[in-house]
Amino acid sequence: MSLPPSSPSPSSSYVVRVAEDPADREACFAVRKEVFVGEQGVPEDIEYDAYDAGAVHVLAVREGVALGTGRLLYGEAAAAQNGGDRSVGSLGRLAVAKSARGLGVGAALVRAIEEAARARGLRAVDLHAQTHALGFYERLGYEAYGPEYLEAGIPHQAMRRAL
């Protein structure tokens, strides 16, 4: 499945697309390594998982440089993350390179993941937000639920948005 490329804005000049080939996937993984492993200290052996193979990965790119990434899990993979509901997708591994923060890349990636979820007939998207990012997701229409918990040693909160 391919999303139409987003229209680059003059100030940011980036596009968000589904990562369709091995080079795109590697670019996604490189951004995740930079942000989660390098900046946040997440152990590399838990950053990449079996879900990566079947996930929809999205990639933000400017002039051939990867700016950010995220992934959508759906079907059984999402149900394993959200308590068993196959009609709810799971947004995860959202990461924006430090040099691209403040350009709207994160929001564009979330919207692209939501579009991929709609295309698969999903009714909602769940995510596990790092608590420092709750405001970001709330501005995009996500609502927190359940207790705060630790994931990879980082405080998180479950959130959901109906599509």
From TrEMBL:
Transmembrane segments: none annotated. Keywords: Acyltransferase, Transferase. CDD domains: NAT_SF. Coiled coil: none annotated. Residues 14-163 form the N-acetyltransferase domain. The keyword Membrane does not apply. This is GNAT family N-acetyltransferase.
